[in-house]
User: Fold this.
Amino acid sequence: MRKQKHELMAYKGKQQIAMITAYDAWSAGLVDRYVDIILVGDSLGMVVQGNDSTLPVTLDEIIYHGKLVSRANQSAFLVVDMPFMTYHISIEQTMLNAARIMKETCAQAVKLEGGKSICPEVKALTQAGIPVFGHLGLTPQSLHQLGGWQKQAKTQEQQTTLMEDAKALVNAGICFLILENIPHDFAKQVTQELPIPTIGIGAGADTDGQVQVFHDLFHLNPDFLPRHATVQAHLGEAMQEALQSYQEKVKAKEILSK
Ligand code: KIV
Assistant:
């Protein structure tokens, strides 16, 4: 049986939450027993689809990947991102889109980026029984508004706004809050002031948990590594070496299939 929302929310102040992204049945099967939460992140737009942002990901695409992950996900809690512009047009459309994600992927929650402005949507979703993860700080769907991938909430004024957004989201009903790329001491302060668990990425050690993108954790792309990656193994390089060895052996007629 998969972990449940309340079980994980009760980790706050007791144990850290481990979360990682997965995009297919193979990666989900691999990470399932080692993490508390699996996220089918719209980061798939970059690490799987090869786009330079998460913006192109469609609702159908996230549902497709959610289905693949769900097939292999037995014990971790499953949350699926709502892609760019699938929750901004109207509450009605947000509900229909979230309903498709929940029904078709068997997710246990959806994740939305943004603060006060999305609280009506968050409220409607939670009232309909759909758990919601919030996401503040560097919110990749607002890349063009933010003007790049730089750290957020660096000034006092920006920190006040983020804290207000966080509290408004909690009042609207979110159960977890992702904090991405914000100053570490400020992430600690947000974590202390909120009654729900925060999960950080590039936000220091004092959040209630950590989330990483699968491809970054294993440094699968030897040519690119975001600053906030906490690499556990450099598998991209190892794969390149293995491929080179395969190529050399085939050319030298040393490898023949049976
Ligand atoms: O899409 C994603 O992978 C995310 C994580 C970085 C939190 O939102």
